[in-house]
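Researcher: Next sequence.
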Amino acid sequence: MKLLLSYFPNLTETQIAQFEQLQELYQDWNLKINVVSRKDIDELYLRHVLHSLGIAKIQEFLPGSKILDVGTGGGFPGIPLAILYPEVRFHLVDSIGKKIKVVEEVVEGLGLKNVKATNARVETVNEQYDFVVSRAVAQMETFVRWVRNSVEKKSKHELKNGILYLKGGNLSEELASFPKATIYPLQDYFKEGFFETKSVVHLPLKYRR
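Model: Next structure:
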């Protein structure tokens, strides 16, 4: 929590309490369903919570915005972002039912009212959102194919509507066919060594309906 507060010092008491609960909730659920790797659970705030919130360093979400989290797994990046932005609506989607079960239980445990969780393939979700967020669930070309019908036409944020993707490593080859993609290295925002190879990729997507 000290790490989190060093980068997000303006959290409310409610937000601090919710972030503090995450460790206990995930440790408890990880004993039943392994959604966070065992080596990562002890570094939950660095490797999962703060990493998820890297998206917030690139774009703050306006109240009333709609965000889709694709392949959310145990709820990342969606749940930390939902705590940070209580007036933003988050839809967390994963094709694996047991992972969505964990998401639902964590959301209930935190008392989050701005999160919907769905066990489905993203291609079957028939709604539009301001941004689609995710943590490297597929190559960008595949991911774009999955979500190209999921983006609202009208942009209201500083960045144009589209994808905000947490990715690691050298992305030049993967993004070669996406000239409009912008890479934001997270080491520009966080000083921990974990973030040296981590980035947020923003890719604006045109409305395809």
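Model: The radius of gyration is 16 Å. Strands lie at 66-70, 89-94, 115-119, 131-135, 162-168, 182-185, 198-204.
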